[in-house]
Write a structure and sequence with these properties.
The protein has one domain (7-193). Helices cover 63% and strands 6% of the residues. It contains six helices and three strands; from the N terminus they run H-H-H-H-H-H-E-E-E. Helix 1 (7-33) runs antiparallel to helix 2, helix 1 packs across helix 6 and helix 3 packs antiparallel against helix 5 (142-159).
Amino acid sequence: MADIPNREALEAELAKLIGKYNRKELSALMEILILSPSIASVPPEFWKQSAQSLVSILMPFSEAVFMASAENMLTGFPVGVDWALINQSAADWARSYSTLLAGQINSTSRSAVAKGINNAVAAFFEEGLTIDEMVARMEADPELAKLFTKDVRDRLGRVFGPHRAEMIAQTEVTRAQMQGEVATADELRRQGVDMVAVWYTSNDEIVCPICGPRHEKKQGDGWFVAEPAHPRCRCRIEHEFVKEPARG
């Protein structure tokens, strides 16, 4: 069975959505940090709203890929499923996982922002000044303020840049594909259809050493958990009928 249709287009679409979100978040952060270059200046409400914005992007997208995976799995399949149950599974998983993922992304961003600010401060102000003293220094020297602001923006631009957006998109499309397969297979098992999950890589020149040995291996034979093996994982899970042993 082929992979879900238009995987690359889906990855590009999600990366675009996350990239737009990243640019908005970076601009909002810079408005705060230009007045006081400290992670403590960013209020908790900022991170709360940031996570909510991410969930609003991730949840509908993950649900749609989950359903595309389920539909792809059952194309030409001799057994049907209760699509109301699959839809509910997709909605439940997308809601819970998107909330978890948004929190993880937010936590990583917050740590990276704190590190970026500290490094920028260390690079520009080696005298051990307080935040108030640094702000006063920059207010007195507009050119210094411009240089400092540019350095902070450059550092945070790596955190909120396109490469991270692409990594998240690629990884999460893979995850949603796998979850759609697993949930559909679970529903089929409840109907008495015995199936086993098989790992498939893209089987091209950039397959990594983690996933390469898993290619065409059944669950339990070299791999166990149906989720991306690493960031940017491009693999997929497919389910096959379990063949009964020949009787003598």
